[in-house]
Predict the 3D structure of the following.
Amino acid sequence: MTDQIPFVDLKAQYSLLKNEIDARIHAVLDHGQFIQGPEIGELEGALNTFCGARHAISCASGTDALLMPLMAHGIGPNDAVFMPAFTFTATAEVALLLGAEPVFTDVRPADFNIDPESLRASIAAVKREGRLKPRAVIAVDLYGLPADYAALNAIAAEEGLLLIADAAQSFGGAVGNRRVGTLAPCTATSFFPAKPLGCYGDGGAIFTDDPALAEVLRSIRLHGKGGDKYDIVRIGINGRLDTMQAAILLAKLPNFAAELVARDALARRYSELLADSGVILPMLPREAKSAWAQYTLRLPAARRDPIAAALKAEGIPTAIYYPRPMHLQPAYRRFGQGEGSLPESEKLAAEVLSLPMHPFMAPETAERIARAVRRAAA
Ligand SMILES: *Cc1c(COP(=O)(O)O)cnc(C)c1O
């Protein structure tokens, strides 16, 4: 009886946008400028227009989009980079790659994002201990919902910290009439295929209103180059976005606003269908707009895996983002305080379950998924 439901449906998107995508790909094959071709500048302009940031710096991945601003600010050994423990690995990895230390803070269960009070406590603890210098905060807009930037910008200003938004999951989201890309002094996003705006490989972008930072980021992206290609003025990386991926994003961008509306409608529909089912539903924000990278339930820890298995048996895939908080990862444990130190992050890691989420889901499919969840969770 059970058709397999896709978790994200990139095929449906491709069939809808096939003409535009194919034409854009063929244009790149024809002009042959596979590196830093004209689509790169065109995409950066289109991204700025979309989100309202002054400068967009496209790059090779969301991970590089996090790494490069830290490099631009000279973050390194003996520096503390604060971040939520309940995030994807890349957030922590970039600090460590530069020799800095991640300082993991707890999250708020209501919105899954960094808890400003926990951040304040972490900053105070680092200052008291005196071993590391507080330098930066990476806030994560988990599942697509912007973090509490009003509080975070205030803390960053008070403490003289660089604030980076890890908006890998939230490009397209907003707070009031300000889109993601303008909520923090520096925003990093990802165009990994399964993100709300995805290309057909790896890709990312950094947004800022600061022209000096934008210029340094453009240099870091090209091996630290200065006035000409063989004039190296700082340490950089090969952080460029491929022209082909920029072309694909240019073909997808005109439909992105409609896709965001469809994602929001699906989230609201799930929440209607799952009301009073006993599972904890994600917050439907009022002031803010989520990009709905994920629609994530909370279930009693002991029941989550059996419920996921029951859904799988009915052809309904689910995902756990993320089963282990960063401070309990084998590679990062020594930077944290161990089990019990960040209770909300630890609890969420045991309770979250994300349902299929994409803009092309038929209404019957959402109903079938919700019925199956209700049955499994009953
Ligand atoms: C996907 C993701 C990244 C990394 O993006 P890549 O493009 O895969 O390098 C970083 N942070 C978060 C929160 C993510 O979800």
